[in-house]
Write a structure and sequence with these properties.
Layout: H1 22-32, E1 50-51, E2 58-59, H2 61-64, E3 65-67, E4 71-77, E5 80-87, E6 93-98, E7 101-106, E8 113-123, E9 126-135, E10 141-151, H3 152-155, E11 159-161, E12 166-168, E13 180-185, E14 188-191, E15 196-201, E16 207-211, E17 222-232, E18 237-247, H4 253-257, E19 288-294, H5 303-315, E20 320-325, H6 327-335, H7 345-357, E21 361-366, H8 394-409, E22 413-415, H9 432-449, E23 453-457, E24 497-501, H10 511-517, E25 521-526, H11 530-542, E26 547-551, H12 555-558, H13 567-570, H14 584-595, E27 607-609, E28 645-649, E29 652-656, E30 668-671, E31 676-683, E32 687-696, E33 704-713, E34 718-725, E35 758-764, E36 770-779, E37 787-794, E38 798-808
Parallel strand pairs: 19-20, 19-26, 20-21, 22-23, 23-24, 24-25, 25-26
Antiparallel strand pairs: 1-2, 3-10, 4-5, 4-10, 6-7, 7-8, 8-9, 9-18, 10-17, 11-12, 11-14, 13-16, 14-15, 15-18, 16-17, 27-38, 28-29, 30-38, 31-37, 32-36, 32-38, 33-34, 33-37, 35-36
């Protein structure tokens, strides 16, 4: 039930693009993507290209394969992987680069390993990787050789085959535990709309492929093609050799990505949506309808956003809002300190009052996992985050935090968590179920005496040995190590409300019937999947469930409207509801409600401002002519499909200068190492509108400030417009899996619908990659001052791309 925690990844080293011939291209990539490899020099800056289709798509090797040829020789000892050598390592080898390739020879042994490595051009489109090595003494070893980290931007949806078997590279990233897509195929051909890649062993073993987009230690978010061998005997030379060929594409973009994935229409661009229309006259609606929101520190702290969130609940027909707190948040509130990043007590009271003004009941809650650092008196044993019910001060601390909730909200109900409990601390002779009965009854009785009803999650009361895998059941679940906790259910007070959280789509959620038959009030709980939410509602109707909550784990941290699904509320009025446009009607409607404010800028009176004198790049990229707007990735990945001339984007008129390889630059690109500016020369404006996008080496979902637009007036004063990724700008790439998301197994279906800007345009590249532009409006706090210039100031790792500018005068 808890949201997945953020994980850190190593810093990515920028890939060197100074290349000579195809062999030297691969050599440079090899020696530059890993800081252990050192660097090398090439004799030329010419980058060879392969013409791929009649539409003039051209692709460089390093666009397609971001890493190639790295290897590791290791041994397994006591279940641990011990690296003997990673290579090639420049400290211990001599390199020979020529037009025929690169030869890397180990200069003596390291950890008992001697090797020769060759990267050689076979013809214009084919290279051969060869690795020969010998491990002199000791136990058998294993090796792993990288045959290519394939760009996930370009190859999601591609078809992979070996002549007999076929798979499709998934659009939605696979989980870390489910990352292996191909295991030991004799050869691999990857077919896409960008290029085809064929990898064939010359005298080596089989080939495997993994989805590395959710692998914590890999910064490239790639599809990883590799060979791996085990139990290689010492004292014998082993040779691995593979040919890699890039050829013209054999798929169309619609074959690869699917028509639905490349959405060029913007049906909700005006902000008007029929999603909020529902039948209030349906007397058979599920009684409790609402949202369970986790109050993490918000990515952007703005109470108006929260009120828009509540309005969206009310407009969908919701009548309940569960505000779920961390113990750390409540500890800070109880001490009246350290709440700068959290919602303050005053803000929470305002939020609750606003919800009640819209006839929405407010139920506070606190999760039952604690950190020993912040709560040392709860005597956590280091193996669990669930408090020790038998520690002397446990309930003093617990009830103090509950009292903070009661004082804030004066509630009729309170959510006490108790989901996904790790090993339960207990005295000798006690069972896990006895501990739960003791603990929950103690809390229930304390709340009951204050006139507050207990609400809790039900997963620990469902026996994993009984229910099908599609249903969440965590009693006897080895992941949590708590045994037979389901036996506690029959001994609990029947006035407890059980929240049955089920996130996977299933044909039937009979767990609702199970809890109902035990005499409990039961609320179903869905997450971001609208299909699953509707299916859960159908079971609630069937088994006469009492409520539906749409949880939104990660929403306030990410501010991504796709984190939640209001379909659960909508379908609580009509079980025959169906999902429209992959659920984007709900996402768009929610986003528009979140960004609505009383001083909303009129969109109809903006007039374009010319960028002619400031343009330094083009949206039609050809590396032989210029670098282009999108990091110089070539014609396969540019914005030439963007409408040109005067057009309306998100309701505002912009003039997009003509895009042609021979007509000069038509946009402004600002790199963090070379900021750009626009000379305005004394214009007085009420508001500005930016049609813009960005490129980041490591794009992510969670909001972060990646720079600013600085507005300078003629009196030498200035104001800053913060540019916040995930809030008012996002990476130009709209494909799933491109952006790092700490909730990696969660919402991934859209990253280009934001609440600090409006989606101005969706399109696709020549090769079919989905791309987007945003429209951000800014209200001038000094409308009587003359503007002198606008500076684009991206942070490290970001590139700003301004397509057009308009002003409300």
């Amino acid at each position: 039930m808890k949201s997945k925690s953020l994980y850190s990844i190593k810093a990515r080293v920028t890939i060197v693009t100074v290349l000579a011939f195809v062999l030297t291209v691969l050599c440079v990539i090899l020696v530059s993507i890993n800081p252990l490899y050192g660097t090398t020099k090439a004799d030329s800056t010419v980058t060879p290209k392969i013409k791929l289709s009649e539409s003039s798509v051209s692709v460089d090797w390093n666009e397609i394969i971001s890493e190639i040829g790295s290897f590791e020789i290791y041994k397994i000892s006591l279940g641990q992987r011990k690296t003997l050598i990673k290579g090639p390592e420049y400290k211990n080898i001599n390199s020979i680069a020529s037009v025929d390739g690169i030869l890397l020879k180990s200069n003596g042994k390291k950890n008992g390993v001697t090797y020769d490595y060759t990267l050689k051009k076979i013809n214009a489109n084919t290279v051969r990787i060869s690795l020969s090595y010998c491990y002199e003494t000791g136990t058998p070893v294993a090796q792993e050789l990288c045959l290519g980290k394939i760009s996930s931007d370009l190859f999601t949806g591609a078809v992979v085959n070996d002549g007999k078997k076929t798979i499709t590279l998934p659009i939605i990233p696979r989980s870390f535990n489910d990352r292996i897509l191909i295991n030991s195929w004799p050869s691999v051909t990857i077919q896409s709309s960008v290029a085809d890649i064929k990898i064939v062993p010359v005298n080596a073993g089989d080939i495997s492929l993994a989805d590395f987009r959710n692998v914590p230690w890999d910064n490239l978010h790639s599809f990883y093609v590799f060979s791996r061998s085990y139990a290689l005997l010492p004292g014998k030379w082993t040779t691995l050799s593979y040919d890699i060929t890039i050829s013209p594409p054999s798929l169309t973009s619609s074959d690869q990505f699917g028509v639905a994935h490349i959405k060029t229409e913007l049906p909700f661009n005006s902000g008007k949506s029929t999603f909020f229309e529902y039948s209030k006259k349906n007397v058979n609606a599920i009684p409790i309808r609402g949202v369970l929101t986790e109050l993490l520190p918000p990515g952007v702290k703005d109470i108006n956003i929260f009120k828009g969130y509540i309005r969206a609940i009310a407009k969908t027909g919701g009548n309940t809002l569960v505000l779920y707190h961390s113990p750390e948040h409540l500890l800070a509130l109880s001490k009246h300190q350290g709440t700068e990043n959290w919602w303050s007590a005053e803000e929470l009271k305002d939020i609750a009052a606003y919800a009640r003004s819209l006839h929405i009941q407010v139920i506070p809650g606190m999760w039952s996992s604690f950190s020993s650092k912040n709560f040392p008196d709860l005597t956590l044993n280091g193996k669990t985050d669930f408090y020790n019910p038998f520690a002397p001060r446990t309930y003093h601390e617990l009830f103090m935090l509950y009292q903070t909730l009661i004082d804030l909200y004066d509630p009729k109900m309170l959510l006490i968590g108790h989901d996904e409990i790790s090993p339960i601390q207990k005295p000798t002779g006690w069972s896990d179920s006895q501990v739960l009965v003791y603990d929950i009854s103690k809390i229930h009785n304390w709340l009951h005496a204050k006139g507050v009803r207990t609400v809790m999650f039900g997963d620990m009361f469902l026996d994993r040995n009984r229910w099908q895998l599609e249903l969440t059941a965590n009693s006897n679940n080895p992941v949590y190590g708590s045994d037979n906790t389901h036996e506690a259910l029959d001994l609990l007070p029947k006035d407890i409300v059980i929240i049955d959280w089920q996130y996977k789509k299933a044909k039937d959620y009979s767990t609702i019937e199970f809890f109902k038959n035990k005499g409990f009030t039961v609320w179903g709980c869905s997450w971001h999947d609208p299909e699953a939410a509707i299916a859960l509602d159908k079971s609630l109707f069937q088994y006469k469930g009492d409520g539906i909550l749409c949880s939104d784990w990660g929403f306030w941290r990410t501010l991504n409207p796709a984190a939640t699904s209001l379909y659960g509320i909508k379908a609580s009025f009509d079980s025959s509801s169906s999902v429209n446009n992959d659920g984007e009607d709900a996402i768009s409607a929610l986003a528009e409600e979140l960004r609505r404010t009383s001083d909303q800028i009129s969109t109809g009176k903006f007039r374009p401002i010319s960028l002619d004198s400031s343009c330094n790049a083009t949206t039609c990229s050809d590396k032989s002519i210029n670098t282009g707007a999108l990091k110089g990735l070539g014609s396969s990945f540019d914005l030439r499909s963007l409408p040109q001339g005067e057009n309306s984007f998100a309701g505002i008129t912009f003039n997009v200068k003509s895009c042609s390889l021979h007509s000069g630059n038509n946009c402004l690109v600002s790199h963090y190492s070379n900021p750009s500016n626009i000379q305005i020369n004394g214009k007085r404006v009420k508001s500005l509108a930016f049609l813009y996008t960005m490129w980041h080496e490591k794009p992510q979902i969670v909001p972060r400030k990646i720079g600013s637009y600085k507005i300078e007036y003629t009196d030498n004063t200035a104001v800053e417009i913060p540019v916040i990724e995930g809030y008012n700008i996002t990476d130009v790439r709209s494909g799933r899996g491109v952006h790092k998301n700490p909730w990696t197994w969660g919402f991934t279906n859209t990253c280009d619908i934001l609440i600090g800007s409006r989606l101005g345009w969706r399109g696709k590249t020549l090769s079919g990659i989905p791309v987007n532009l945003q429209v951000m409006t800014w209200k001038n706090p000094e409308p009587n001052k003359l503007i002198k210039k606008i500076s684009l100031l991206p942070n490290d790792g970001a590139t700003f791309i301004l397509i057009a500018l308009s002003a409300l005068k």
